[in-house]
Each structure stands twice: as C-alpha cells, then as structure tokens.
Write a structure and sequence with these properties.
This protein has 116 residues and is an alpha+beta fold. It starts with a strand and ends with a helix. Helices cover 34% and strands 31% of the residues. Helix 1 runs antiparallel to helix 2. Strands 2-5-1-6 form a four-stranded antiparallel beta sheet, covered by helices on one side. The longest helix has 15 residues.
Length: 116
C-alpha cells in the first residue's frame, strides 16, 4: 500500500471542517500543528506596529494514494481555498515509506480494493 501526505495550511476557524471533510472522504487520521504563521501575496495589515493576521493551523494527513486526490479536492472545496485569498492552501507529496500505519492499512484495504 502506498501513501501520500496531504499538507494543509488553514485558518484555525476552518481546521475542524477540514478534519471532518477529510475523514468523510477516507482519511483515517490527522495531526494538527497550531499557532503557525504565514504570508501570502499581500502582506498582513499592521496597526501600531502589530500585525493583524488570523491564526493558522498546519494539518498533516497521511492518506492512501488512491484516495488522496479526492480528499485534497474535497478539503479545498469545503474550506473554499479558491474562493478568496488568504483562506488557506493544501498540497500533497509522495511518501517513500511509512511505519506505524498497520491499523490504518487493515481498515483501508477493503476500501482501496474497490478503487483498484
């Protein structure tokens, strides 16, 4: 079984929505790193030298490769990444090897066999 890592940088207000959507489309878990900071094309506005920017989370999801594109697209649509700037971004990268995922593989095997 092969995996991909979906990485999403999102406004903290959308984290729970992304986690629920990913699980609904086949993700078996995620790791959330809170208090991240990011900057897009336009810099965040400042007030008296303080930056006014929304809190960001980094969501990491190790998913089976046959489900990855569907999960990525579902997350992007649910969080409205393309609707307005600064909402967030997500991308996937190949995972060469993974350990500690045996319990996920047992759950995913019947699901992935349908995809193949």
């Amino acid at each position: 079984m092969r995996f991909k890592l979906i990485i999403a940088f999102v406004q903290d207000s959308k984290t729970e929505l992304i986690l629920k959507t990913a699980r609904d489309f086949g993700a078996t878990g995620a790791t959330v790193i809170t208090s991240a900071r990011g900057e897009g094309i336009e810099r965040a506005k400042t007030f008296l030298g303080l930056t006014l920017e929304a809190q960001r989370d980094v969501v990491l999801m190790l998913v089976e490769e046959h489900l990855s594109r569907t999960i990525l697209e579902a997350v992007a649509e649910a969080a409205e990444f393309d609707a307005s700037p600064g909402t967030g971004i997500a991308f996937q990268i190949d995972v060469e090897d993974a350990v500690g995922v045996q319990h996920q593989m047992e759950k995913l095997t019947p699901l992935v066999e349908e995809e193949i």
